[in-house]
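Q: what sequence does this backbone want?
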């Protein structure tokens, strides 16, 4: 069924790095929900595979001493959604990955695989962009960390060098403390579909809940890679939580995004949806943060 040249099973992260160096053409496989489908389609036929699925050292969610949330790259979507640390601090990420495929995919699919694919439609990606996530990468020269914005290079390509694998995703305390967020996925059907557009918004309100101190908004399928709408973010800072300002913020995203025409949706439709989602996601984020929206 699968045209696999060889399968090597890593016993540790260090062993995985060694195997990748020994077999430079090998493909990493974790849950296999993407790689095996691609092999069946013939896109990766005859490839060598390095399996990292047994590496529990890079699985699970933890809270580090400085308040950083660490998500091991092998953590499944189902685990993330149900994890108490995620629910307490960045529940929107759990909600976002709970919209990936069906239950079977969410049980085996990993957040590392979702981000390492480099596709703009990944449900976790836009939310991680909005949380200013940092990607941890382990390779022959040790561990390096890079902002997720730098990890994505172009459609389908991420910053993984020879012998490297992604081992963790970090959310610094400063990126989530005091923020509330909401993610909306628009797709042609309600279940098991790739996003036509995805929008994730985080907001931090003033002490009296009447002013937007900070807003972060990120999109999937609004460009070749997930992206932040930085002009809209700058516009929203310091603005009151009124319907007029929320609508103005939403219209401003058009200055940043660059969706394309495809068989799933036309560019102008994606632009329209992006504005609608921005308004709805910010409205819900403000509500979650305890704010009241005035006319």
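A:
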């Amino acid at each position: 069924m699968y045209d696999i040249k060889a399968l090597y099973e890593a016993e540790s992260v260090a062993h995985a790095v060694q195997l990748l160096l020994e077999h430079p053409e090998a493909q990493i496989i974790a849950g296999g929900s993407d790689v095996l489908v691609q092999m069946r389609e013939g896109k990766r036929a005859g490839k060598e595979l390095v399996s990292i699925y047994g590496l529990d050292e890079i699985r699970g969610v933890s809270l580090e001493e400085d308040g950083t949330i660490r998500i091991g790259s092998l953590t499944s979507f189902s685990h993330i959604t149900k994890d108490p640390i995620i629910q307490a601090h960045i529940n929107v990420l759990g909600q976002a990955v709970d919209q990936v495929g069906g239950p079977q995919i969410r049980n085996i699919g990993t957040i590392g695989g979702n981000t390492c694919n480099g596709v703009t439609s990944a449900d976790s990606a836009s939310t991680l962009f909005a949380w200013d996530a940092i990607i941890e990468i382990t390779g022959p020269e040790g561990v390096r960390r890079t902002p997720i914005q730098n990890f994505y290079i172009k459609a389908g390509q991420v910053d993984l060098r020879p012998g490297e694998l992604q081992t963790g995703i970090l959310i610094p305390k400063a990126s989530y403390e005091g923020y509330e967020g909401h993610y909306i996925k628009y797709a042609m059907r309600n279940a098991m579909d790739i996003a036509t557009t995805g929008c994730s918004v985080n907001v931090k309100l003033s002490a009296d809940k009447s002013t937007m101190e900070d807003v972060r908004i990120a999109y999937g399928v609004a460009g070749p890679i997930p992206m932040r709408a930085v002009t809209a973010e700058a516009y929203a800072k310091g603005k009151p939580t009124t319907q007029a300002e929320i609508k103005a913020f939403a219209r401003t995203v058009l200055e940043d995004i660059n969706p394309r025409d495809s068989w799933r949706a036309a560019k102008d439709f994606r632009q329209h949806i992006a504005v609608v989602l921005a308004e709805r996601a910010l409205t819900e984020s403000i509500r979650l943060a305890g704010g009241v929206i005035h006319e």
